[in-house]
Amino acid sequence: MSLLRVCAFAKLLSRRSVIEKCAVRVSFADCCQLCASVRGGTVRWISGTSLQLQNINVSSRIPKTDEAKKRALRQFQLLDVLEARIQQLQSDVVLDVQHAKVQFMKAPSHGRGTSSGKGHRSTPQEKTDIPKSGQTGDKGSFKSQPRRWIEKLTQEKKNKLKKQQHLQQKMQICVKEKLQTSSSKGTKSSLMSTGTTHKTISTGVKKTTAAAATAMELAEVEELEKRLNQQVSHWTLSSKPERMQEGSVGNACQDISLSICSYLEACIFVGDIERAHNFLLSQHRVMSRRKHLNTGVYNIMMRVWAKKGTLNQIGRMFILLEEAGLKPNRGSYFAALECMGRNPNCSPKTVRFCISRCLSQMEEDGLSVDDLFNQCVFRQDERDMLLKAIRIVKPEYQPRLNMHTSKCSSLLVQDFYSERADHIYPKLDFTQEDLQERFKRQLSVEQACTITIDSVEAAKPVTENMAKMRELLAEQRIQWQKILLQALRESKMILAKSNTRDYRLNLYPYLCLLEDKEYVDIMIQSVANLPPSGESLKILARDLGNRVFTKYCVRQKHQNQTVEKLGSIYNAYTDLLAKDTKVYDVLPREQWWKLEMEQSSGPTLQGGETSWPYIVTLELGTYMVDMMVKNLKINSDILNPAYDRKLIPILYHMYTFRSTRQVRGIIEPHPILTQMQQEAMETKLTFDSYVMPMLCPPVPWTSVKFGAYLLTPTKLMRTVDGATQHEELLEKCQNLHAIYDSLNQLGNCAWKINKPLLDIIISIFNDRGSDKLDIPPPLSEAPKIPHFNPQDHSYTASEKAHMKRQVINAKKKCSEMHSLRMDALYKLSIANHMRDEIFWFPHNMDFRGRTYPCPPYFNHLGSDVTRAILVFAEGKLLGPKGLDWLKIHLVNLTGLKKRSSLQGRLEYANTIMEDILDSADNPLNGRKWWMNADEPWQALACCMEIANAVRSPDPAQFISHFPVHQDGSCNGLQHYAALGRDVIGATSVNLMPCDVPQDVYSGVAQQVEELRARDAESGLKIAQVLEGFISRKVVKQTVMTVVYGVTRYGGRLQIEKRLKEIDEFPKEFVWDASHYLVRQVFNALKEMFTGTREIQDWLTESARLISKSGHTVQWVTPLGLPIIQPYHRTRNQVVKNNYIRYYMSALCSLSFHRRPDTVKQKNAFPPNFIHSLDSTHMMLTSLHCYSSGLTFVSVHDCFWTHALTVDTMNKVCREQFVALHSQPILQELSNFLLYKYCTGVLMCQRRGDVELQRHFGFLYSSKC
Question: CB within 10 Å: which end of the chain, N or C, has fewer?
């Protein structure tokens, strides 16, 4: 670009408004014509494009009545007010209006008039409706209103005069300040050339002052118009003012901003730059919509223009930023510099000057060039272009990159990171070449986004009916694909024709992100996975939207050229993990960061995509659901030719009801479709790629938004749908290294399938299942649903009610059996697909910090069945004590000998060796001893491992892959006992040295029995009935869950369920007995754990006071993880759009502005706080086990390792528990709550602050 063109562009900017193409000036003469038209008794109406003042088309007609004349007079006064404002702002304000075709018609004397070509009869009571934008017509005249609004307008004028005087004073002060600083500072928008710079500087003060005044005046005008329109809406009978929920304004702004960003990104991704540009301008033109824009929104378009090298458009974006009152940030300057690096047409002198001006402006804003390279996200060759531009003025410049080597702030792990001399980081049992090949396989799976595997039911013989149903389904799916493809293309054509300059968001770009066939495949897959009982519309829509988003993210990474760089870094990363490479003294996270710094050129791997707000995902999914409901049909006689043929929908939008209110929408399949799918028993299952375990080690977590899968987007913290506050808190944390490293250690554990055990389970699954062994039976074993005619008068009312209950119970049972069967089918099919593979489970965590594997169906956190078929891929010698630990582990799985010592359990295992070996050799035809264990399948797997070990030449040299578990003794009570320093409670949960392991459940049962015996002696009937029925099993669940917030009501239900399972217990006493026992259990726990209840009460009361003050409860774990409870007040509401009406929770967008749910906040704080301590202890244990070279995984408070290293793991576990509770946990929590909720203006002015401060300060100082 030549210097002349740059100068010409600067002049153009000085003469034209930013909205020059879409706005015209409204002259005073035009206003007078409008006034004259009304004063002359004429009717004005607007057609075509409307006069966009608050986007309302005003249509009125004035009948010749006294009341009408009064109303006309009021309208004249209203127009006078607007006329004065227009005259005042005419010199420097360009309103956002379009040419309006105004027609004038005389009002007929007989009271009739026409509007939009239609006759209309007027009466004094008629009123004027305000049609929607784009509509025309006259629907009546104004209804009579009192004169109150005239007084309000008069007061408004007085207020405006005061504001103007105040504004003038401010402007005079502002001008003086500007004049004093104008000689030392330039304007931020001068990035183009010498001419542009001189032009801006010479008029900088004047234009800045005028722009500020104009912006404030525009805001006042829009506020005035808004108030007037609100008054008009009250006048019209049909208007219904919408009431915004408390806190919804902040949520709406946040959601709209994110929706705008995702919309612009989608438009740019599909190449529709014009739509994106016009949409941004339409948002910018109107002040009421401009408030939703931030600098990041403008930066999105800057990057587009930077790619094209259009420097004038970049300059225009900077001016838009200034008009919006926003400051350029790193992304803005980066785009400008990138554009200069790409522009070959500018003269070197001009480019050098522009770059120098840009760098100096950055320096004034407190930004450095290194900040651009360290904190900006690059795509494709953007980084290289930025570096090229910088080196034009700084030829020797070399970016200084931040290596993220800051020390961890938590005292618990400072030594772990600083003292590494004795650390032995384990290697994987794979060569580097093998790991690199596995990466390629995993990459191909994630690029496909879906994977189709064989079902374990494929082994069943194919019957004639099965073959027929499969053929029918295949034919129907081909037909449905054609129908959906046509419907999708037609709907896209309709959406594409919508006005691209319309400010409303449009789904069209979201429907162009993928190929049409991919959308259709997603919809067909959802139909195949729909359960017979249907699925919630919100859940189904969310899943559909998420599938589209996942595919979109994968394609974004291809477009941004990050896949190639990911492969390069991962191949180098395998050097750390492979067994045939040198030993490193760094952690996986540190090594990955180092490799990224070394290969810094090209795109950035982290944070390259914009996440979609929940409402966008839901809207897109709802659109697809609506398309399925409307277009997918089937012949009614497809299964029974006797019926008349007609096309019927295969999906129905139903509603569930509670009392008289609709609760939620349900998408339910037609029974014909359900019958076809069940009888077909298809041999293939299709899953999303993230459902499957990974074929290579996961990408280490290095930031909140990067880790786990190669391409599939994954959140570090699982949250409620629509919740954003967790992510915001995490992004503010500078140091989560210990959290990342713990998740990476858990994810790096390699697994394989126990094939002999899997084959046994599949054989039982394909037979008829087994309730005893937790193998769900097929639906053919489900109870038949009784049929009866409710209109049959031969039944009495009680008989009809009884039969209805039978039908409901039978349907519920069938639904539960189908869910359990499909869950088992998915798990077993995935396991069978991975039977010859080595695989990994990437991990993330919930909002409390508890860790979970990312694959949802098949993982080691599953049931007894899935745990039994998983073993470590790496084997280790049993060593001298490994076989003993296998035997002890087996006894633990049986549920026997709970109060025996470890030596006693080992001796018991040696006495039952015949049963162990028989179970291993003849699991289904022998004595079947293993079937009576608490965990039968894990017990059988352990029997097989013991049999193989004892039959080997030397058991100590036997290579074992079997994981041995060490479970916590009621872990929640352990933490409470440690926090409260309760010696008795600590002894009962094995925190104090004892000769034999203590069992808190048996201890509570024994104490309850003593209380019962005392009451029985005193003659209490229910205590006498309970004699001989109080056991460990009856009280275990209540004791286990009381520390997690279970109430007496919940505890009573738990005990009631256990009593009903006892056949000998008289059922008529179940109610009284459960009431009695839950009271005694709570009393026993209170005596055993004196500090537990006090700490619980303090935590509960703290949460109650916090939530009552309008805040959600937050705290920080000892490892520095911020936690916030996501419990807010919600209500179900109808959400309407152009596609379908659906019921959803108002919890679409959680933020800090939502009012908390006091009951949930206070009840959940104690258990969630203990869960956070539990997760902290697990993470500490995992880190130190990793530095000791151990294989370690966890199921919350149950830790797994090889039999060889159980003793080492136990030592680490105890040391870290002591280290954790050596910290002043409660005191630090109290200090945090005092700092968070009892300081600052907002809280100190509240009445309850004194109570809060007193409460938070009341701590058990001697116990901290």
Answer: C
